[in-house]
Amino acid sequence: MSARQPGGAFTADVTGPEHGENGFAVFRRAWDTQTGEALPLPSLDTGERGAFRIGVRAARAHDAVIADVRFAHFRGRTSGPGEGGDRVLVHLMRQGSWRFTGLGGGEADVTVPDGSFLARRNGPPTSFDVRPGSRATVLILPPLGAAGSLRRTARPGLEPVE
């Protein structure tokens, strides 16, 4: 695990088997320690030992997160809406694939191959399975219209677009 990073940066590596079934808990504690705030994502149920083994380098910009993620093993299900807020997530696959089942509370089964992306709202529980060895850039954006959201202008004098 890495020490607290200046300027909203975050690093964590829970790819090793020594993290066992506690990979997500170790990851979440590292996030809380390094950033000083709660992880803006829901809890995960990996359902099996060692199903959360990832390495992440991330940076916060206002209330958004940009993360470079590499996957040794990542399979499970989100806990559902509410926890983590109604954020928008963008998954840009650079290598490998990421499969989602149950998007939007339905039965949709979508696989995002390398070179493709999926933008979705954090919502009802979703199952996921990432091919080992995959790499992705994940953007975690604030809810649209949220106070302090990125819709606010970065330059003085410009109004946000509705």
Q: What is the helix/strand order? A: EHEEEEEEEEE
User: Structural class, from secondary structure content?
Assistant: mainly beta
Give the overall shape, derived from the CA principal axes: globular
Just name the CATH architecture: Sandwich
Beta-strand content estimate: 35-45%
Radius of gyration based on Cα positions: 16 Å
* CATH-assigned homologous superfamily: Jelly Rolls
What's the average pLDDT?
78
> What's the total number of strands?
10
The N- and C-terminal alpha carbons lie at a distance of 41 Å
Count of discrete structural domains: 1
Query: What is the CATH class?
Result: Mainly Beta
CATH topology: Jelly Rolls
Q: State the helicity in percent bands.
A: under 10%
Total count of helical runs of at least 4 residues: 1
The unreliable regions are 1-6, 147-162
**Major sheet size, sense and barrel closure:** 10 strands, antiparallel
Helices, strands, pairings?
Elements: E1 9-13, H1 23-35, E2 44-45, E3 52-61, E4 64-78, E5 88-95, E6 97-101, E7 109-113, E8 117-121, E9 127-130, E10 135-141
Antiparallel strand pairs: 1-3, 2-4, 3-4, 4-9, 4-10, 5-8, 5-10, 6-7, 6-9
What does this structure look like?
The protein is mainly beta and 162 residues long. The chain has a single domain (6-141), classed as Jelly Rolls (Sandwich), CATH 2.60.120.10. It has one helix and ten strands, in the order E-H-E-E-E-E-E-E-E-E-E. Strands 1, 2, 3, 4, 5, 6, 7, 8, 9 and 10 form a ten-stranded antiparallel sheet that branches. Residues 1-6 and 147-162 have low confidence and may be disordered.
